[in-house]
Design brief:
Layout (H helix, E strand, L loop, with lengths): L5 H12 L4 E2 L5 E5 L2 E5 L1 E5 L5 E5 L8 E5 L3 E5 L2 E6 L12 E11 L5 E6 L5 E5 L4 E3 L5 E8 L6 E8 L1 E7 L2 E6 L6 E5 L1 E2 L3 E3 L4 E9 L5 E9 L1 E4 L5 E6 L5 E14 L2 E7 L5 E9 L6 H18 L6
Parallel strand pairs: 19-26
Antiparallel strand pairs: 1-2, 2-3, 4-5, 5-6, 7-8, 8-9, 9-10, 10-11, 12-13, 13-14, 15-16, 16-17, 18-20, 20-21, 22-23, 23-24, 24-25, 25-26
Length: 314
């Protein structure tokens, strides 16, 4: 429903300034007072200063009206972006006056930038592109740091959005961060291995990823994943990564085996769809929990090598 009288639009603008609006399930901006309800379709956007804007389509008025939501990005959830509005008459307030939850999904663009797509009633999406760089925190969490001017102090404060999730490796040049609590949102980064040959005792995988920033600049990020390599009796391999609050989650791989020495086995890893990942890991015998596993695999390998060397004469 759209406003048809200039007075109603003015009332709506006043409510926005005072922080008495909400966002509905279709990401429309809604004002309601008593029996009066005004729901506006429009376009959501994110400025380079990290202000969220909403451009409303108001019939019977000038072509468009822009409402700037003064405040800060507050929180990133699996399928939502939480923003805050500050009341115009409460500039000295220590707490934001109101929270608005935009519904949608998280992804990345071709430049490895974070994107939040706001779902619309007509099936379209508004893409909010985060122009800055992201990083990996001390507990393997994904962080987006930015600076935003405070409406209360008038200074540019450093803030951060923290994304809860877990890492996955899906291709030779693909590193994925899956957000917890959803199957719709994930960040898929184009990345390259710093070294494709790893030793299990080091307990790490290191990638590099380039992020295309504004002005044509590129920022290179080092993504270091630390964890524990494990071999399993079904001949699969896992890399278990620790996260916040003691949570641990493993990336599982298939593998083919070769022998790097008398007491070492080298594994070439592949993904769920049997695609090679360009990663090889060397395990020494002393790192294996089950020594019999090593002996059995070693014997199988020797038999395979012997069969490969047999020549049949006719």
């Amino acid at each position: 429903m759209r406003p048809r009288a200039r007075g109603r639009w003015s009332d709506f603008q006043q409510q926005v300034r005072e922080g008495r609006v909400r966002v509905d399930a279709r990401n429309r901006l809604v004002y309601q007072a008593g029996s009066q309800r005004l729901a506006l379709d429009g376009v959501w956007a994110l400025t380079r200063a990290h202000d969220v804007t909403f451009t409303a389509r108001a019939s019977g008025q000038p072509p468009s009206q822009t409402v700037y939501l003064k405040g800060s990005l507050l929180e990133a959830k699996a399928n939502a972006l939480i923003v805050t509005m500050q009341q115009a008459d409460r500039q000295d307030a220590a707490e934001p006056s109101q929270r608005l939850a935009l519904l949608g999904r998280w992804s990345t663009d071709a430049n490895n930038r974070l994107v939040f797509s706001v779902e619309k009633a007509d099936g379209s999406e508004d893409r909010l592109t985060f122009q800055g760089g992201w990083e990996v925190g001390p507990h393997h969490e994904l962080l987006y740091r930015y600076r935003q001017r405070s409406t209360r102090t008038r200074t540019a404060d450093e803030r951060a959005l923290i994304f809860a999730g877990a890492w996955d490796i899906t291709g030779a040049d693909r590193l994925v961060y899956r957000l917890s609590g959803t199957s719709d949102s994930a960040f898929e980064f184009k990345a390259s291995l710093q070294s494709p040959a790893l030793r299990a005792r080091d307990g790490r995988i290191i990638y590099q990823a380039g992020i295309g920033l504004s002005g044509g600049r590129t920022q290179t990020k080092r993504i270091a994943l630390f964890g524990t390599w494990k071999l399993h009796k079904d001949k699969t391999v896992s890399f278990e990564i620790p996260y916040v609050q003691g949570r641990r989650q493993a990336i599982r791989f298939g593998a083919t085996y070769a022998f790097a020495g008398k007491n070492e086995v080298a594994l070439k890893l592949y993904g769920r769809r049997q695609q090679p990942l360009g990663i090889s890991v060397i395990f020494s015998r002393r790192l294996l929990e089950d020594a019999r596993w090593f002996v059995r695999v070693r014997k199988e390998g020797e038999e395979t090598e012997a069969l490969a060397g047999v020549q049949v004469r006719f």
